[in-house]
Structures are given as C-alpha cells and as structure tokens.
Design goal:
The protein contains nine helices and five strands. It is an alpha/beta fold. It is globular, with a radius of gyration of 18 Å. Strands 3-2-1-4-5 form a five-stranded mixed sheet, sandwiched between helices. The protein has two domains: 85 residues, no CATH class; 101 residues, Ribonuclease H-like superfamily/Ribonuclease H (Nucleotidyltransferase, domain 5, 2-Layer Sandwich).
Length: 233
C-alpha cells in the first residue's frame, strides 16, 4: 500500500480500525443519502462492529483532510461563474451554504457561513478567486449582498469582472444544489457548525469527484470510489 499522507496519519494515529474500513465508512457518509445508523448496520453485516458515533468522529476528522488534498489536485474551471446560496440547518437554525459552478456545471467552490450578508458573500468570492483566479463573468440573482460584495472586490482590486443578475442563467447552480441537499437531507440537520463544515466539505468533494473534477495526474484511479480513496495516499 502506498504511504498515507502525513496529515491523515496524524488524524488517525490512535484509531483501532484498519484505514480501509474508516475510509469506506466516511465515503458512504459523503456519497450517499444515509444517516449514520444505517452505515453502522451495513458494516455490521460485513462482520465489522463499529458504533455510529465512531463513524461520525471519523468523518469529522478525515473528510476535511481529504477535501484539502482534493483542492490541490482540482481541475481548472471556466471563467463564467454562477453563484447562489442554499439553506443548511445547523443546531436547529438555518445557515447559508454559498456555492458556485461554471457554465459547464463544474463546482468552483463552496463556503458555509452563519449569515447571509456582504461580509459572508465577500469571503466566499475571495476564497473562490484565491483558488481559481479572477473570473470574466459572475452571474448572481438579485441579492443585494452579493452585488455589494462584487462591487467592492472590483473597486479594491481593479479587477474587470462583468456582473450579471439573472435567475434564468443561475438555474444551473440551483439545480446543482440538489445533489448536495440530497445527501444532507437524511442527516436531519447538523449538531454544530464545526460538524456541518466538515461533513459538507466531504459531500462537496465527493460530488466534484463524481463530476470528474479530480486531476487525472493524481493516481490512475478510475471509479469515483477509487479516486476518493486515492486522496489518502
């Protein structure tokens, strides 16, 4: 087996289960609309006894590490961006998941924020630009916060970004929300913001892998599952 990445070794150094079992469980959390108890039952049918709370701890620790590796091996995206927010329930309250895709539906970036305002929108735009560079166009709905954030970035950086406000053109990102919400829905909300960010990072990473956004130079894995596991080595 290839050497495990250093960050992952540190995260699981006190674990008492084989890495293959841990990675399988956390992939199921990120890839399928399953709550934790069915995952506990599925692995039990395969002769592995592990509590659902343990699977949850694995996911919280491992998924952000793999998501960070993925970001370093992510394929380039287009320069025409569609940006929108969707709702995610955390500790009984609605929070805001900022997401963006390009005109071909490739995920650009995502960011979970407690508020939906100018500061949150600007943080998301800056993070996405830091990862992929300045886009030529950004399409948004009629959100005043998003409009103000783009205007402030243009004013501060001098970047020549065309801003369009069109619900019709933004339909592609609204449709893409569904793939993420489908996985989140059976979880019935997250207990804490930290848990939400960790699990959403894994869900978004798995979603991007399924869309073919992992650079082919990172291993020779073919299936989405194999590509996910390749992030650990």
């Amino acid at each position: 087996m290839k050497a495990m990445i250093k960050a992952l070794r540190k995260v699981i150094k006190r674990a008492h289960y084989p890495l293959e079992i841990m990675l399988t469980c956390v992939r199921w959390c990120a890839a399928y609309p399953l709550s934790l108890r069915p995952i506990e039952e599925i692995v039990a049918e395969r002769g592995v006894v592990v509590d659902h709370a343990t699977v949850h701890r694995w996911a919280i620790k491992i998924l952000p590490v793999l998501a960070a590796v993925f970001r370093r091996h992510k394929r380039p995206v287009g320069t025409s961006w569609r940006i929108d927010e969707t709702y995610i329930k955390v500790a009984g309250q609605w929070k805001y998941l900022y997401r963006a895709v390009d005109r071909d539906g490739n995920t650009i970036d995502f960011l979970l924020r407690a508020n939906r305002n100018h500061a949150a929108a600007r943080s998301f735009f800056e993070q996405a630009i830091g990862l992929h560079g300045v886009p030529e166009k950004i399409t948004i709905d009629k959100s005043g916060a998003n409009t103000a954030a783009i205007q402030s970035i243009r004013a501060d950086s001098g970047a020549d970004i065309e801003m369009r406000q069109s619900k019709y053109l933004n339909d592609i990102v609204e449709q893409d929300h569904r793939a993420v919400k489908r996985i989140v829905r059976p979880m019935l909300g997250f207990k804490s913001f930290r848990c939400a960010r960790a699990l959403i990072a894994g869900i978004e990473t798995m979603h991007m892998i399924k869309k073919g956004q992992l650079d082919g130079s990172h291993g020779q894995a073919s299936s989405a599952a194999a590509k996910f596991y390749s992030l650990a080595f």
